[in-house]
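Long-time lurker. I teach an intro course on protein structure, and each term I like to show students one example going from raw sequence to a predicted 3D structure in token notation. This year I'd like something fresh instead of my usual example. Would anyone be willing to generate the tokens for the chain below so I can use it in lecture? Attribution to the forum is fine with me.
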Amino acid sequence: MYIEALRRPTIIAAECLRMIRVHDAQTAAHNIRTQRLALKLATEIGVDKFTFHVLRLGSLIHDIGKLSIDAAIINKPGPLDERERKIVER
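-- Reply from a regular --
Happy to contribute to a lecture. Here you go:
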């Protein structure tokens, strides 16, 4: 039952990551690295199974809001101008 309850959220998280990857591969790679670090820490501190799985899914899609921002702004080298900052902050 526990594993079955995680099937749908896992599928949704995987689809969200696919959408992030299509929009910006660097953000997707960052999310995967973040997930690895979060799960390593979770294992080291001994979180319960539920918290582990919440971290597993949440860390993978924590930047989903970037889908609404032009990838050119996300990956712009250097500081953002005022217009770009307003776009990111909305």
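Some talking points for your students: The chain has a mean pLDDT of 91. The chain has one domain: 2-89.
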